[in-house]
Amino acid sequence: MSMSRPPVECEWLKAPQAPLASAFYRSQGSKEKVRGDEQVAVARLDGQIIAALRISPRDGHWLLRAMLVSPELRRQGIATELLRFALAQRAEPLWCFALAALAPWYQQRGFEPVSAAPAAIEGPYRAYAQRQPLTLMCWQPAHVRL
Question: N or C: which end of the chain has fewer CB within 10 A?
Answer without folding.
Answer: C
